[in-house]
Design goal:
Number of helices of chain A: 0
Order of helices and strands of chain B: EEEEEEEEEEE
Largest sheet of chain A: 6 strands, mixed
Order of helices and strands of chain A: EEEEEEEEEEEE
Number of strands of chain A: 12
Number of helices of chain B: 0
Helix content of chain B: under 10%
Largest sheet of chain B: 7 strands, mixed
Distance between the termini of chain A: 40 Å
Low-confidence stretches of chain A: none
Radius of gyration of chain B: 13 Å
Helix content of chain A: under 10%
Distance between the termini of chain B: 33 Å
Strand content of chain B: over 45%
Mean pLDDT of chain B: 92
Low-confidence stretches of chain B: none
Structural class of chain B: mainly beta
Shape of chain A: globular
Number of strands of chain B: 11
Radius of gyration of chain A: 14 Å
Oligomer: heterodimer
Chain lengths: 115, 115
């Protein structure tokens, strides 16, 4: 099975600053999809950003962007101009192109935003 | 409905009891997933439905766990003879189609506590 690793259990950032959350994954597939999900205390997982592996261009959604390094199997999330509402658990997830039924999640990174 | 709805939000039960957790997906979503999230961990895949049938139940930990989706909409996760190790948040998610490249839409989860 594919594995997703988030090596930073906790991160903190000053409000308005930039923070990068790390994610690596292991797969033998060439076609797949990567996601970052945010989970606030309400428990509901919310999609932050998505990247298709066949696209070389890094995905961007407003203040959120990714650094996708396919050869290195790395998928980091950069949050610019951090806001208090960004505080949450962030999960990196992998979905295979051919075995797309399952999403594989990392163990998460707890982000604290300091006012 | 507007989003994925899960009931109950919280369930406390005694060891050995039977529990049912309900998921009402977004209207029109044919794919439905159950995940289990233990404290400090990422979501762990349990089962996936496409329509009424369980397309992949490889994540169910043992035969005490069972899930149904009789009419292709609402799903019920059933746990028999509950054990303390079953305590976790059970997340339901839906998706518009199978093998989709898009994201999963999650509910807020049902927190199960087995005493």
């Amino acid at each position: 099975a594919q594995t997703v690793t988030q090596s930073q259990p906790e991160m903190s950032v000053q409000e308005a600053e930039t923070v990068t959350l790390s994610c690596t994954y292991d797969t033998s597939e060439s076609d797949y999809y990567l996601f970052w999900y945010k989970q606030p205390p309400s428990r509901q997982m919310i999609l932050v950003i998505r990247q298709e592996a066949y696209k070389q261009q890094n995905a961007t959604e407003n203040r959120f962007s990714v650094n996708f390094q396919k050869a290195a199997k790395s998928f980091s999330l950069k949050i610019s101009d951090s806001q208090l509402g960004d505080a949450a658990m962030y999960f990196c997830a992998y979905r295979g192109g051919w075995t797309g039924n399952q999403f594989y999640f990392g163990t998460g990174t707890s982000l604290t935003v300091i006012p | 409905g507007a989003g994925v709805s899960q009931t109950p939000s919280n369930k406390v039960t005694e060891k050995g009891k039977y529990v049912e957790l309900r998921c009402d997906p977004i209207s029109g979503h044919t794919a439905l997933y159950w995940y289990r999230q233990s404290l400090g961990q990422g979501p762990e895949f349990l089962i996936y439905f496409q329509g009424t049938g369980a397309a992949d139940d490889s994540g169910l930990p043992n035969d005490r766990f069972f899930a149904v989706r009789p009419e292709g909409s609402v799903s019920t996760l059933k746990i028999q003879r509950t054990e303390r190790g079953d305590s976790a948040v059970y997340l339901c998610a839906s998706s518009p189609q199978s093998q989709a490249t898009g994201e999963l839409f999650f509910g807020e989860g049902s927190r199960l506590t087995v005493l």
